[in-house]
Amino acid sequence: MRVLIGVFTMLSLAVMVASVPLFGQTKVAATPPMGWNSWNHFAGHVTDADVRSAADSLVSTGMRNAGYVYVNVDDTWQGKRDAEGVLHPNERFPDMKALGDYIHSKGLKFGIYSSPGAQTCAHYEGSLGHEAQDAKLYAAWGVDFLKYDLCSFHDNMRKAEAEHPDDPSAAKNLMIAAYRKMGDALKATGRPILYSLCQYGVDQPWKWGPELGANMWRTTDDIDDSYGRMIAIGFSQAGLAKYAGPGHWNDPDMLEVGNGKMTEDEYKTHMSLWVLLAAPLLAGNDLTKMSEADRNILMNKEAIAIDQDSLGKQGDRLYESGDLDVWTKPLSGGRVAVGLFNRSWSTRDVSDVWKQTDLGHRSGVFTSRIPKHGVTLLVVSK
Ligand code: GLA
After folding, report:
1. Ligand 1 in reach of 42 Cβ (< 6 A)
2. Nearest ligand 1 atom to alpha carbon 121
3. Which of 81, 227, 307, 367 is the most buried (most CB within 10 A)?
């Protein structure tokens, strides 16, 4: 099979390096949030020391200056509530305010995690019935980002369904109300706290998330460190572009780059797809042990600039045939990013018809100059 791709309207395929704000954005999530999250690598074993090391590494590797500013503690930091209902961290996190201060002292932002249910997914204490109290606590600790994960709230939804068999929206409405409640509680603190919904795309959060103050929402179930799962998520995002924009983003889940179970090309595919999707870029690896290849993927300035482009438009699928998948993302200044993905087990060749050159096996960012009134005509073949 041969596929012709004519690119007639672009001035240039070259992608300029856009400037990425040094210490985050002024408006919350003006561009897709960037940072690090503890879950994909440390899962339920994360400690205060791991989080501090991640913060140190964001600075020493240059990732902070490349835009990765959020340091997010995911599930399993929670301890028990006291007699007044105040939630305390567990023994792995001696002092959350001190941790927040440390993160801020590095020019970074502090993220935390909870659930609208009684329990989180890892069965730690959730926020049900304590929303306003928890939001105030987060603000007092200097929290800048909350990931709010549905988890055990499923039980409440099932109950609502059983109690209202004639109302098909009972569970959905209860869930939206729970997310609204925390959104309102965060707003009431007066502290700008990025609000990240995590309910795996149930009932199309892209349609109701922005209205209740969400800055991003997961669109699918969890990613894992495998090519199959990563592309299943990434390529399922077609059609969602119109719901993303400054302040509110689709979230196809956190990055697995550097966690070791994909090849370098597969991680490049992961990063390329995520930047074309204007996805939040939350690294999920151990930043203290990064290979040069991982570093180069996570810190590729041109890739990051595609993600963070000021136009704030998510990309979408242009064309798919078999294992060839072509995605484009509109960029500011009349530019466009184009991704040619090869999902097959064999390599494909790209040739430039007018230059009569075989570009060989391509990966990463492709740069070419299109002459006045000209064209770049590419053929991707098996
Ligand atoms: C869910 C979320 C994950 C992670 C875990 C923590 O599975 O989707 O991203 O937060 O919970 O328990």
Report:
1. no
2. 12
3. 307
pLDDT 10s digits, 97-148? 999 999 999 999 999 999 999 999 999 999 999 999 999 999 999 999 999 9
C-alpha 26 to ligand 1 mean position (Å): 28
pTM for the predicted model, two decimal places? 0.91
Q: From the CB of 198, is ligand 1 less than 6 Å away?
A: yes
How far apart are the C-alpha atoms of 320 and 91, rounded to whole Å?
Answer: 50
Q: Which atom of ligand 1 is nearest to the CA of 43?
A: 6
The CA 278 to ligand 1 mean position distance, Å, reads 21
Q: Which one, of 90, 8, 35, 67, lies nearest residue 255 by Cα?
A: 35
| CA of residue 345 to ligand 1 center, whole Å | 31
Q: What is the pLDDT of residues 158-196, one digit of tens each?
A: 999 999 999 999 999 999 999 999 999 999 999 999 999
Active site residues: 149, 222
3-state SS string for the chain: CEEEEEECCCCECCCCCCCCCCCCCCCCCCCCCEEEECHHHHHHHCCHHHHHHHHHHHHHCCHHHHCCCEEECCCCCEEEECCCCCEEECCCCCCHHHHHHHHHHCCCEEEEEECCCCECCCCCECCCCCHHHHHHHHHHHCCCEEEEECCCHHHHHHHHHHHCCCCCCHHHHHHHHHHHHHHHHHHHCCCCCEEEEECCCCCCHHHHCHHHCCCEEECCCCCCCCHHHHHHHHHHHCCCHHHCECCEEEECCCCCCCCCCCCHHHHHHHHHHHHHCCCCEEECCCHHHCCHHHHHHHCCHHHHHHHCCCCCCCCEEEEEECCEEEEEEEEHHHEEEEEEEECCCCCCEEEECCCCEEEECCCCCCCCECCCCCCEEEEEEC
Identity (one letter) of the amino acid at 289? Answer: K
